[in-house]
């Protein structure tokens, strides 16, 4: 997708003489992330705060808007006018410096080496957010537990990687009492708990502010374990009540990942940035020593025009299913394509390709027991059959003593 950055001019909010285009990175989970040309009216900055009025598209709180190559976070909407605040590196790095943390001499943030134009654009979008999250969560990360201590713990077992695709509603109850290590993606956490299934691990990789919180908050997580990207939304660490195991994301050629994160948190192991939380779960299952990953709820698509499984929240002491307008959610997802007659989204095809590469290069078996979706790179079977074939012995009988 072509990227357009136009020069923004300081103008009076009440005039229409000067216009420009901006990029809004929509954080709403049902809307694309990408370029949205907009007409905006800009008021001069005051203490890193800018007031803008956007014509031509809806803008919501927690959207990110790029102005003059700087990234801003939409904080407030007042009568159609947005209050945006600089969401860049400078303020976060200054805060780290004030906390007594100095980045190693010679490291600049960000420095991008040998990255494609697409990767460079990716870094431009996210490095400010990553730095802000690391800064706000610095002491928890510095003193936190590392995922690396679990290497090989579950040798000889199968891992169940649970996504929150629409098909999860078909076979979620087959997971009750299963003899396997259950690794839940963050969005699948509450649906699993609602079904009486406690995952062994929950994984969260996304760095969106607030977006992931609704998947992990409100419930009593004190007896559960979260595996968390060190650059994830810093608010998650505050809300999660149980154990957290941290890791640094790695991305070859991206100095923020190659140099800065290892310098700040040398105790944390690195896990490849593999595009999505399900792929990260497959990598971690291999690290845990599991013999294979069995995919459940990993549709990577929108079968029957549904965006996800049934979603739940903890309300007044009970789980309650959230009422959603499936048609509205589906229609909001622009850029849809079809694979094997099923609606999907181009990045999902990349995620499947990445998983295929991971399975091959790590010599790691993947079984697709999703019972829906577009993944056709791995052997497919129903979950009940996968249980009989691969999940016959209690995990405790196979687990390595560490």
What topology does this entry show?
Layout: E1 23-25, E2 39-42, E3 49-55, E4 64-67, E5 70-78, E6 81-86, H1 89-98, H2 117-136, H3 138-142, E7 145-146, E8 158-162, H4 168-171, E9 181-185, H5 189-194, E10 201-204, H6 213-216, E11 225-229, H7 234-239, E12 243-250, H8 255-264, E13 270-272, H9 277-287, E14 292-296, E15 312-315, E16 318-321, H10 326-332, E17 337-339, E18 342-344, H11 346-361, E19 365-368, H12 383-390, H13 395-398
Parallel strand pairs: 7-12, 8-9, 8-14, 9-10, 10-11, 11-12, 12-13, 14-19
Antiparallel strand pairs: 1-4, 2-3, 3-6, 4-5, 5-6, 15-16, 17-18
Helix pairs in contact: 1-2
Describe the 3D structure:
The protein has 13 helices and 19 strands. The longest helix is centred in the N-terminal third of the chain and has 20 residues, at 117-136. By secondary structure, the protein is an alpha/beta fold. 40% of the residues are buried. The protein folds into 3 domains: 23-87, no CATH class; 90-138; 139-398, no CATH class.
